Amino acid sequence: MARLPGGLRPQKKPAGRYHHGELRRALLDAALGIVEKDGTGAVSLSAAARRVGVSPQASYNHFRDKGALLAAMAEEGLRGLERSMREAGAADLGEGERLEAIGVAYVAHASAHPAHFRLLSAPELADKTEHPQLLAAYEAAFGVLLAAIEACQATGVVRKADARKLARAAWAMVHGVAWLLVDGQFAVAGADAAHVARESVRVLFKGLDARR
User: Fold this and answer.
1) CA dihedral (149, 153, 158, 162) positive or negative
2) Which of 12, 63, 118, 190 matches a 20 to 30 Å C-alpha distance to 29?
């Protein structure tokens, strides 16, 4: 180990000691690891603290309860989902193709990040109004799909109807496809998640298409 002036050695951070922001990040990562291994039901502040190597009390300095911890993880997952959908929607495509790409991106992102995706169905997060930041993240992600449907309606690709209702139906459909894939109940021989998503999304959009 290199010596400091005067022959002193630099001090290592004691095990289990974190700066404020570092501990919050460490607890989120630990809790996500628990979700990956044992599901959302196994998450607790004390379990996350044990993984990190700090006292359970230390976790309460960052999250008031399990619900707050789950909400913070789910918010991160939704922000990532929103980015994936926006990137898909930014492609140089026709309105109908762009809408399809957004739906495929939803399923593909969920398949690539199953732990974050599972958090969206955690019972503790059923009422998103209890977690304003999570609700804002959900609305932002949903807004990508809603805007795409409105754009399709403006060009006559999607039939005229309540755009929010159509978006909710589309969200429910792609969410269901994603869940079946993540849960291993929608396996198709020789097909990957993107292929299954694309086929399923096309079935949905045939129902929305004003020209059919």
Assistant:
1) positive
2) 12
